[in-house]
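Zinc finger protein, pasting as requested.
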Amino acid sequence: MKWQAGDYASYLANLLEGETQSVFLSLNLEDISDYQSVKKTVLRRFGWDKNGFKSKFFSAKPSLDEDFATYINRVACYFSRWLELAQVSDFDSLSFLILREIAPAVRCRIRGLYKGLFSYVLV
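Structure tokens follow.
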């Protein structure tokens, strides 16, 4: 038996429990019957979207019972999934993504550098 794509959301609804079911039931009627909308909402709620993987990548720390190779593999998976969901497919896109991430930190450091430089010159 082959399922029709239009029926995915209703099949999924019967399997959901707990908080996932609450997220599903909070959707409006139009979205509740659209599988892609349900999927996107549930993934976002539990941090399995682009921003969630970005956050997991930047905040990842090794657990006490995790060896280095396992930790690196886990962080690499977060990074790969973040790039995939951010639709990064070439070096230029990757460069833009990285520069966009470091820009706020660089701006803050440059401001601090200028303050220090001007206070030194004015003294």
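Note for the archive: DSSP finds seven helices and no strands in the chain.
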